[in-house]
Design goal:
alpha+beta; 4-stranded mixed β-sheet; 5 helices; 10 strands
Length: 172
Amino acid sequence: MAIKNNRVKSTNDIELKDRLVAINRVTKVTKGGRTFTFAAIVVVGNEDGIVGYGLGKANEVTTAIAKGVEAAKKNLIKVPVHKGTIPHEQDAKFGGSRVMLKPASQGTGVKAGGAMRAVFESVGITDVLAKSKGSSNPHNLVKATIAALSEMRSPQTVAQNRGISLEQVFNG
């Protein structure tokens, strides 16, 4: 597994689990009648810090989900998970959706909405406080949550960048 700028390059040795976030039925009216297609947004992750999302469109639900899984495997990111939660607070925005993420103490659980919950469970975060503001569109919520998680910095990275020890990062 090669990681560069939080992007995972190789997925050969990773066991990924997929979660369906939303299915949207799209209707196209033609002179021959109505044509139904399906769009599925899927989140995949190994529940140990790696997560990605994908959108699949097809004439059948199962094909759309399969295409979404393949698309999700192509844009995986590595997220620093510190003791089952995120290392620091983070805000992000995508389209009309805004998300706020806060670390939570152990035993709190995942306090987040449906689309965000799927992302947190896929990445392996067990304790987090999250709030979505603005649009509740699942596509934009997933993208905003992934954007917030991709901006996370691990405590080791912060210590290395500041040139201090790991204990000094937590004690100030």
